[in-house]
Amino acid sequence: MATRWRLCVCSLGILLLVPCSLSEEFSLAGSLHPVVEVVGQDVVLPCQLSPQAGLPSMDVQWRKAGPGFILVHEYMHEGTQDLPGEGYQTRTELFLQDFSSGNVSLKLKRVQVADTGTYHCFVRNPQWTLEATTELQVAAVAPVFIDVLGPRGQGIGLACRSAGWFPKPELQWVGKNWQNLAMEIVTNMTQNVENLYSVVSHVTVTEGEDNGDISCIVQNGLLETERQSAIHLSGDVFPHVSPWLAAFWVLFTLVLIAAGACAYAGYTAKQKASQKKRSKEESLLNLANEKKTREAECQELHETLDAERKAFESERQELRKTIASKEKKIKELEEERQELRKTIASQKKGWFG
Predict the structure, then answer these.
(1) SS3 of 240, please?
(2) Could you tell me whether strands 145-152 and 129-139 are parallel, antiparallel, or unpaired per DSSP bridges?
(3) What is the pLDDT of residues 52-99, one digit of tens each?
(4) CB 91, CB 110: distance < 8 Å
(5) Beta strands 35-38 and 129-139: pairing type?
(6) DSSP string for 75-125
(7) Does 298 lie in the same domain as 248?
(8) CATH code (residue 37)
(9) Residue 146 Ramachandran class (φ > 0 left, ψ -120 to 50 alpha, else beta)
(10) pLDDT of 312 higher than 90
């Protein structure tokens, strides 16, 4: 009985150790160093399963690290599903014919700046899951052009422009005589919707004994490569002023100053006259407005007096009517008193008669 129990325990231990031993038999490796590729090219992100012989059926999934994980490509052995992730249609491919040799690398086509990042390769079967990572760095270079902008003071203005760089490039001007490059070099960089950089730099070159070639160099630090453009400036291209022409321009400037002074004096006198006229017109207008205001006040006062006079006249008529009515009533009372006296007198006469 004890022997059977020991056999059961050993068998259980062996079953528990089988997955571990199977997973220890295989290993998965990505790239130890970042993979660098140029925009628009195809790149292979390596992922190798070892050993190469006797591989079991497995599922493969590639994901990109980001806010969470972004599915790039997935292969399911059951049902033989081999599909790219959303946003990667027509751009991803696995080497299915090389699965037997452990090659589960991902081919990413037409690389974009947005593809930069860390990619995770997952390989799993019912017994184990393995993971490896590969970092992708994307770079871009573009041609460089120099434009001649024309005279700038005593020198010649140059512009260096280039569009389609990644990551952010570095720009520098190089000339045989550094002192002939103006100290103020203005450089601007912008990014488009595809995150590619455009650079424009302006510089003014003054005339020297031998200007020679002046170059604009744009460098990509990731690829350790550069693009440049050069231009040769001879003394003939710089602005030259003859003494007679200088004297003419001085005289012309003095004439312009004198004409400007005369025009300013005339303008000032005209402004003063106009201001005086405007002030007089404003005074007359104020007087007219004041006269209208006074007339309106007088008219309002007359109307008020007429209204008060009519009211007084009406009150006087009412008072006269009241007095007449009271006089009439007094007269009637006087007549009644006379009648009463007569009546009393008549009664007295009848009593004493």
Answers:
(1) coil
(2) unpaired
(3) 655 667 899 999 998 889 999 999 887 668 899 988 999 999 998 998
(4) yes
(5) parallel
(6) EETTTTEEEEPTT-TTTEEE-GGGGGGTB--EEE-S--GGG-EEEEEEEE-
(7) yes
(8) 2.60.40.10
(9) beta
(10) no
Q: Looking only at Cα atoms, what is the longest distance across the chain?
A: 182
% of the chain residues with pLDDT over 70: 83
Residue 10's pLDDT is 38
What does the pLDDT look like over 222-244, one tens digit per residue? 999 999 999 887 765 565 555 56
What average pLDDT is seen over the chain? 83
Identify the bridge partners of residue 201 per DSSP, sorted by sequence position. Answer: 160, 187
Report the first-to-last Cα separation within the chain, whole angstroms: 180
DSSP annotation string for 39-89: TTS-EEE--EEE--SSPPP-EEEEEEEESEEEEEEEEETTTTEEEEPTT-T
The number of distinct structural domains making up the chain is: 3
Q: Which domain holds residue 126?
A: 26-139
CA dist 223 and 346 (Å) reads: 156
Give the model's pLDDT for residue 7.
38
Across the strands, what pairs with 157? 150, 204
Same domain, 192 and 231: yes
The pLDDT tens digits for 156-199 are 889 999 999 999 999 999 876 655 455 578 999 999 999 999 99
Q: Please tell me whether residues 135 and 165 are part of one structural domain.
A: no
Q: Which residue has the tokens 């007096």?
A: 305
pLDDT of residue 74: 94
Could you tell me the two tokens for 109? 């086509």
Q: DSSP secondary structure string, 160-192? A: EEEEEEBS--EEEEEESSGGGB-S--EEEEEE-
Question: Which residues does 148 contact at the CB level (< 8 Å), separation at least 6?
Answer: 156, 157, 158, 231, 237
Query: How far, CA to CA in Å, does 80 sit from each of 57, 70, 75, 130, 214?
Result: 11, 21, 7, 20, 61
